[in-house]
TrEMBL record:
It comes from Aegilops tauschii subsp. strangulata. This is F-box domain-containing protein. It comes from the Eukaryota. PANTHER family: OJ000223_09.16 PROTEIN. Pfam families: F-box-like, LRR_At1g61320_AtMIF1. Residues 14-67 form the F-box domain.
Length: 412
């Protein structure tokens, strides 16, 4: 629901707020949505110059609801240009203060991309911007595969056309786009300041055969979030600054993710919904031996097949030597739990260990589609774990199974 227009009494003798100094008025505007801040500037000559002095700007197209998408993007672009006027525009409202942080959420609308790109290049040309965040998606609707490919190409063209702006980008979220084989690597390589990348409901153009390969040895990317990314496999060949990787995958081969050179990696989360019989894979085939500082591991099975194969601790000790927090969620009710101890055996520094069968809404539709096979594993009787401080078990109704599992852990 669109918020009501900001009401200001523009008569000076009746508008006591306007008597405040600029510094205080800017603090007031900083707490408003940018759309309302722009309205304030339009409503009063006293406030007119203030929106152009804001150092933090947050602007989303969802705040400009009009009869058509084009009209919404018209309003969005107009608001952006009103506070980020092009350098060639000479007027009394010309921005005199550098923008330190800018966050924009908008649609891939071809008629508006050039004005947005030029405004952004003018912002970064001042050289004082510390944070730029984009969230970009196609216009709402049920887009076909060819349309997703077209939108993906449109975005990559936008990125190449305004390379100066994208070099300053620090955080990027993309939704519902299809990428060519080298597009994601090219994107990360061109965005030299990019720290966080999220790809949601995206895919490779030829997703049944294409592997998403990310090979960016010179990038500063620290966080990668892939949600419902459709491809054959995800392979991080070289992402040396990456600290956090999260992958939620529906369609995949074994192993679904391969982490090669990621020496700074601290946090890994992998969620896979497997509904068709396929041999499980070993974590040692997936995780990197270069990630010597891995401290958190979270796996989600969505109450379907257990897709990992327990393995001898010797295969994982080098990878898990600094692992302090691990959790396994979405374990189907009939599954035995003793197999999970292979992680405890391989992680001598583990302090927190959690098991959960809490239901995720995404799994409901697949409840009866997968043939679930119990996992068999004989834990070592000689294991002595001295560092475990917390064991959390949530959602299991079988008291005897839980009690037996707790006893297995306590024994160690």
């Amino acid at each position: 629901m669109e918020s009501p227009p900001l009401k200001l009494n523009v008569a000076r003798d009746e508008d006591r707020i306007s008597d405040l100094p600029d510094e205080l008025l800017l603090r007031i505007l900083a707490r408003l949505d940018l759309r309302d801040a722009v309205r304030a500037g339009a409503a009063s000559t006293r406030w007119r110059h203030l929106p152009h002095q804001l150092s933090v700007l947050l602007l989303g197209v969802s705040r400009f609801r009009r009869a058509t998408l084009v009209e919404s993007m018209d309003a969005f672009a107009a608001a952006l240009l009103s506070v980020c006027p092009p350098a060639e525009r000479s007027c009394e409202c010309q921005r005199s203060h550098a923008i330190k942080a800018l966050a924009l959420c908008f649609y891939l609308s071809a008629p508006h991309l050039s004005s947005i790109g030029r405004a952004l290049e003018d912002v970064v040309s001042r050289g004082k911007t510390k944070w730029i965040e984009f969230r970009i998606s196609p216009p709402p609707g049920d887009n076909t595969a060819p349309e997703l490919t077209e939108f993906g190409q449109q975005f990559m063209s936008f990125c190449r056309a305004y390379q100066v702006a994208f070099r300053w980008l620090t955080s990027l979220t993309l939704e519902n786009l299809a990428f060519g084989d080298s597009d994601v690597t090219d994107l990360i390589s061109n965005c030299v300041k990019l720290e966080s990348l999220a790809l949601r409901a995206c895919r490779m153009v030829n997703f049944e055969h294409s592997v998403l390969k990310i090979d960016t040895p010179c990038s500063g990317l620290q966080e990668l979030n892939l949600v419902h990314f459709v491809c054959k496999r995800i392979q991080l060949i070289s992402v040396p600054k990456l600290r956090q990787a999260s992958c939620l995958i529906w369609r995949f081969e074994n192993p679904p993710v391969r982490l090669d050179y990621v020496p700074d990696l601290r946090h890994v989360a992998i969620a896979c919904l497997r509904t068709h019989p396929k041999a499980p894979f070993k974590l040692s085939e997936c995780l990197s031996r270069s990630a010597l500082n891995l401290s958190e591991l979270h796996l989600n099975f969505f109450h379907q097949m257990i897709w990992i194969q327990p393995e001898h601790p010797k295969q994982l000790t080098a990878i898990f030597r600094n692992l302090s927090n691990a959790s396994l969620s979405g374990i189907f009710p009939e599954c035995d739990l003793s197999w999970t101890l292979f992680i405890l055996e391989a992680a001598p520094a583990l302090q927190k260990f959690g098991l959960s069968r809490t239901r995720h809404a995404c799994a409901n539709a697949w409840d009866n589609n997968a043939e679930k096979t119990n996992v068999v594993w004989d834990p070592s009787k000689d294991l002595k774990h001295m560092n475990l401080k917390s064991l959390m078990i949530d959602g299991f109704e079988e008291e005897d199974k839980v009690a037996a599992y707790i006893w297995l852990v306590v024994e160690r």
